Amino acid sequence: MSPLSRVWRWIREHAVMGVGILAVAYMLIPILVIAVFSFNDPKGKFNFTWEGFTLSHWENAFGIPELTEALVLSLQLAALSTVVATALGTLLAMGLVRYQFAGRRLANLLIVIPMATPEVVLGASLLSMFVFIGVDRGFSTLWIAHIMFSISFVVVVVRSRLIGFDRSLEEAARDLGATPLTTFRTITLPLLAPGLVAAALLAFALSLDDFVISNFNSGTTVTFPLFIFGASQRGIPVEVNVLATLLFVLTAIAMGFTVWQQHRAEKLAAIRPDDDVDTGLAALASGQRPVAGEPDPRPGAAS
Amino acid sequence: MTRRSGTRRAKWLTALLALGAAMALAACGSDLGGGANEGEVTTAEATGTVGGELVISQWPFYIDRKTVPEFEDEAGVKVDYIEDVNDNNEIFAKLRPDLQNGESADRSIIVVTDWMAKKMYDLGYLQDLDKDAIGEVNDNLIESLKSPSIDPDRAYTVPWQSGLTGLVVNTKEAPDVTSINDIFDPQYKGKVTVLTELRDTVPMILQGNGIEPEDATTQDWLDAIDQLDEAVKSGQIRKLTGNDYTDDMARGDAVIAIGWSGDAVQLQADNPDLEFVKPEDGCLLWSDNMVIPVGAPNPDAAYAFMNYVYDPANQTQIAAYNSYITPVKGVQEIFKQEDPELATSQLIFPTDEYTGDCSTIDNPPADGVTEVEERWQQLISGG
Amino acid sequence: MKSRRFTPYALMGPGLFWLLVFFAVPMAFMAIVALEEGSIDTGFSLTWQWANFSDSVGSFDTQFLRSFRFSIIATLLCLLIAYPLAYAIAFKAGRWKNLMLFAVVAPFFTTYLIRTLAWQTILTDQGQIADFFRTIGIISEDGRLLETDSSVIMGITYNFLPFMILPIYASLEQLDERFIEAAKDLYSSSRQAFLRVTLPLSAPGIVAGTLLTFIPAFGDYVNATFLGGPNQAMIGNVIQDQYLRTQNYPTAAALSFVVMAVILVMVLIYIRFAGSESLMGEETNP
């Protein structure tokens, strides 16, 4: 094979990965900028032009109490609403995909329309209702609102996973005598896991990011985006960049930790010496990796 | 066949009935009845005892870090100082459902600009102030702010800080800017921003056309908007902004902006070329005001706070922090001793001569408001 | 598998209840408002003003069309970028899978606002990117990157990319690689294998992704606010302004319902065209 066609072959094999990496780089550019500017030393309030390197804002990262409070509050809010929204959304998706029932069209409509509704209207109408009922606005109205707008997104993500789901495993479990609940717990849920994780990440991000709906329904509470928006009108303090970068780095470390755990699990677990087998947790979850002592889930394999 | 279509019809009927029921229910409960609150305007009476909690809704970065804690110590009041007023209209929308119901959403003081204060007052959302309770304010309010057009007796407003609307200019890239009409100068094409707030931008254009906002007719307003629209469509005007024109100026994406006096001072710290220019055709003078909403708890604490910040000694650190016009007498004297350069700043202690040609009127004529607003909406959304 | 009669309702009950109480009911309020007329000063009254709908669409048709254009282009761009990326993560990443997934979602944790403002810094007239584009002639000497259609579309694409990536990834990830191998054996090229096997099997993910991207993009206003000028204002900006600035609640409500209706119609057409009933739930896996 000529060198040129070998190069071409290499490109084609790695093209997809190449595009993937470029895309990831594209996604991370603003993060890089944010991180770089967290070391900036502006004399005044505006953090747009590079004026000098300093670590002072990092040392003083939690020095603006309102900012730190707002961030902590937003994280709590996001965690709470993610858990509930993912749970409710997954149940909804299961009901929709696996059962026939009257009112399916209506249910679908009810789920899709919130995604299509402009935020300002969602937020304002919810506020009007809360005032009408006489509910005090604060943390509780915030998480009610956050769960409301997250459910639809969770349903859509989980549903696409459920549709391609291989039911034969569940059927096998039934045949072996497992109750529906046990089947759900030991088979369905783990196999759904990547879809649930994706949906939960989406819900978490949506909550952390939300400005308009939160603004209307927050009462006197200040969330992180609310603080930022206020600050953006008058000059964002460098500490905001610091906290944003910190958040990113911490999540990266958490991720790196799970990758490292995977490595160790691979080394310790007994695996079949088969090159094609992906030995990660992800593979286990998608049923591609055999677990010692259980029938090989891969189609076509001898049990 | 008949059975299936029958079921389908039944389904539609049920759906329609449900919808109708929901709407009827909603119509009963719809609180967007709008219009002014019925009844008399109440006065927030002071009882004399100061204590408890005080919730203030304020613009961001309008106060230094020490004033609130020091006030808390002195007055024995716990203050919840929330910086959630980013825009007059936004805070209006956020609080309106409560105010409509006669409630203040926990807040005892809100700080809004003149025209929004008047709007809220006319809708019955604010209370009159107990003048006997704000002695310091009465004594120390500077003369020029004693009788504004929106509230001639200062019945419901206490100025927080005052400011000028004019031009914020990058004097290096745009030297010799003296008139509002310089924003239409082709050499600055694509480098000009104006404010999205109708009441900030159009009166300045009117002045540029030689028309005093007090005397302007609805047609004058519409013509001014057309003039701006042309500039927007041609790309002369880059963007309409809120407070964030400072970002564009700081980055250098804009060299002339319609903006506010205090911001220029803050921009200078990072870029000394940025200056506030008072146009020779005129300017706008406004105040952000502390107001007490209906149903506000603890007016005593509110009055205590107002008195506190009107003490020249306390006002000094606020004035130094934000570089806007301080409404309190006696602060200039303190500055003369401690910071003589700032004491002569026309932006913090303007002379009457300096603000003489500034207009305080910024509303379109009452009969033309709707038309003007609609035309403006088309302009800001490129329609 | 037998479908028990009450299980679906039990499963869906809590979620539907939440949406009913905290979405449907407030929307019913809004429907009433859309039929009112008046102003904030004189008061609003229910006059069954159906003309609000047609009037508002007539006044703001430019912005509707603009939103359409921006969100469709952005969705297509998202698809073009997201699919290879999702594919890479699902099949080619191996041990880097979780890390890449994280890299995709992590930008989300830095708040929409900060990210978009970071783009302002990156695309500023005085910046390197703008200079580069001027050098290679894509923009003119006194041209700019910000406050243009392109910057807004780019912002929308950027911000909604994870919405496209995650569903496609979730869908691809559960494909057994042996299907793909078998397909490669059956068909002459890997391209054919992809087009005939992988792509159709990942269709639910694509449908979910495009809808999750297009729907919020259509009503978006943040990107147009920070990265665009008045000539880039989308219908979301108009609704925002009508509600907050002009306090013209009937128009704002009417416009919102029109937006919702437009999106629903597009979704229905899309599903018919795509031949996939996955989103509207016709497709089941009982």
How would you characterize this protein structure?
The complex is a heterotrimer of chains A (303), B (383) and C (286). Helix content of chain A is 72%, strand content 0%. Chain B has 383 residues and is of the alpha/beta class. Chain B is 41% helix and 16% strand. In chain B, strands 2, 3, 4, 6, 7, 8, 9, 10, 11 and 12 form a ten-stranded mixed beta sheet that branches. In chain B, α2 links the parallel β2 and β3. The mean pLDDT of chain B is 86. Chain C has two domains: 28 residues, no CATH class; 212 residues, MetI-like (MetI-like fold, Orthogonal Bundle). Chain C is 71% helix and 3% strand. Chain C has 13 helices and two strands; from the N terminus they run αββαααααααααααα. A two-stranded antiparallel ribbon of chain C has the order 1-2. About 2% of the residues of chain C have low confidence. Classes of the chains: A mainly alpha (303), B alpha/beta (383), C mainly alpha (286). At the A-B interface, α5 and α10 of A face α3, α8 and α9 of B.
